[in-house]
Amino acid sequence: MFFLMGAGADSTTCHVAAHALASPVAAVFFASAVCTLALAVLLGSMRLRPPWWCACAVCEAYLTASWTGEFDNLCDWFAHLLRREPGRTVHVHVLGNVLTANPATVEHMLRGRFDNYPKGAPFSAILADFLGRGIFNVDGDSWLFQRKLAAAELASPAIRAFTARVVASELRCRLIPLLHSASAGQGGEEKLLDLQDVFRRFAFDCICKISFGLDPGCLELSLPMSAFADAFDTASMLSARRATAPMHVVWKIKRLLNIGDERELRDAIGLVDDLAAEVIRQRRKLGSTTASGDDLLSRFMGSINDDKYLRDIVVSFLLAGRDTVASALTAFFLLLCDHPHVADAIRDEVSRVTAGGRDADDHPAIATSEKLKDMHYVHAALYECMRLFPPVQFDSKFAAGEDTLPDGTPVAKGTRVTYHAYAMGRMESVWGPDCAEFRPERWLRDNQFVPESPYRYPVFQGGVRVCIGKELAIMEMKAAIVAVVQGFDIETVGRSSRRPKFAPGLTAAFAGGVPVRVRRRARARG
Asked: Where are the alpha helices (DSSP H) in 319-368?
């Protein structure tokens, strides 16, 4: 029908089209028709299959989504494909993407041939609207400048002490009281909580205080989540969806016409921009006190005058500090529900390290940074959780030049190469026959935590790009785990399977949330 419309266009048709454009709804349909017509004419004129067409079994399964008949998540299907390959590497041609779960290849990308595997222009284009020139979306001098400045600030004793105070305050004044109020069996009505939402708000509050010196106050569930956090989730989800399209020209055309997902993404990013700009303005109003502020934004403002650049840096740190922490904590307590003996072991270690310390209200005391360092089993359990459920399931680079991977796979210039941390955690070749089991003991030697190679466990990346906020994030997560496990039992509600279904996004999130019932633990006797 569209070909007939194109062939018979005359002045009357143009008049009708112009009249249709007067209505916003009709304009959307008209723009979609024009887009479809243009694509059809392009493919017809080429007299070829689409340029992304591939008849191999893997690409056909991806394009037809036939893999959904056996797997709930794309990451599980990719893990299945990678397990079947001797070199733990597979090429998804329709995406122009080489996937790997081979530690030798990960080391090759992140250390041996680091210069040949930057983020690349295609990746930067996908996330440019959301992350701009932030540290996670740039290469070269811009990346190096931000990394050096951020690394120096995050390593400073002042920032570390400030972060510890923020986390302790959020636990003591917000998260623990919230769980108390929702706990069952206290003479009040039982409440269900969405644990993922709770940890998102906790992490959002922490990172806003640390990064901006701002308290969004979004942990009080009687109020809706702040518009900033909501818009951030939408922007993350829709930005990630861009990367799954076989033809990037599709989302680029939709962006140009401001229709569909791209219109929703633009609206969400607009809200993120507005609120980030307001935060920067408020911090700048502090004048001379800004330079001595403890938050990261105050420190960056001492070196950067460009507000757009500041906005990009702030959003990138928010993505790292809020979404990843919330994802890991949610997964941790899901695993704990299925492995109560791990919770018992954590309580034993905490009691031993803290000597059963309690605060003035007779609640378990919030563990200090020094005490947390001595909790090796907690550390092992957290690492084991992220082995199975890494907050960032995969990471992609684009080959700057031709290369051959250690397993013999040829890589053409411009190819997207992705190491898949989620799949690696499920490889017998990497972790042994018990790789599917949640077993914190695999990280302990003589009751001391012993890390693995970052190329076998690339949860925090490795080599030059290793995560600079790693130690602060671990401290925050361990503090939350210790505080919650000491005082509460968490029970999932309405869960039909131990296999979670993930929602789309730049970080791992559980589709539909994680409803739980909270029970306050009686104080241990003897």
From this structure: 324-338, 340-354
**51: Cβ–Cβ under 8 A, 6 or more apart, which residues?**
247
Q: Which amino acid is at 428?
A: E
The reply, when asked if residue 467 is annotated as ligand binding, is yes
Q: Which residues of the chain have pLDDT under 50?
A: 1-22, 42-43, 45-48, 186, 218-224, 288-292, 524-526
Q: Shortest CA distance to 26 belongs to which of 38, 16, 36, 39?
A: 16
Instruction: Estimate the share of the chain in helix, then strand, then coil, as percent rounded to the nearest 5.
Output: 60, 10, 30
Q: Which residue has the tokens 């990138």?
A: 316
DSSP three-state, residue 113: coil
What pLDDT score was predicted for residue 419?
97
Q: Cα torsion at 116, 118, 120, 125 (round to 10°)?
A: 170
Residues 6+ apart with CB under 8 A from 505: 233, 236, 237, 240, 323
Query: Is the domain 70-520 a CATH 3.40.50.720 member?
Result: no
Longest Cα–Cα distance in the chain = 91
Closest CA to 204 of 176, 179, 170: 170
Q: Do 317 and 211 touch, CB atoms closer than 8 A?
A: yes
Q: In angstroms, rounded to a whole number, what is the distance separating the alpha carbons of residues 396 and 409?
A: 16
Neighbours of 285 (CB within 10 A): 9
Spans of all domains in the chain: 70-520
List beta partners, residue 364: 358
Beta bridge partners of 395: 419
Please give the C-alpha separations between residue 59 and each of 70, 92, 93, 94, 95, in angstroms, as whole numbers: 16, 6, 6, 6, 8
Q: Which residue has 């680029």 as its token pair? A: 252
- On the 0-12 / 13-18 / 19+ scale of CB atoms within 10 A, 507 is buried
Tokens 């695993």 belong to residue: 335
Alpha carbons 168 and 212: distance in angstroms, whole number: 18
Give phi and psi for 194, each to the nearest 5.
Answer: -90, 105
Q: Which residues in 125-232 belong to E strands, given as ranges?
A: 192-194
Residue 119 near residue 127, CB atoms below 8 Å: no
- The C-alpha atoms of residue 345 and residue 351 are separated, in whole angstroms, by 10
DSSP string, 229-266: HHHHHHHHHHHHHHTT-S-HHHHHHHHHHT-HHHHHHH
422: which 2 tokens? Answer: 């989620």
Instruction: Report the alpha-carbon distance of residue 30 to residue 35 in Å, rounded.
Output: 9
pLDDT score at 216: 72
420 C-beta neighbours (distance < 10 Å), count: 28
- Per-residue model confidence (pLDDT) at position 53: 64
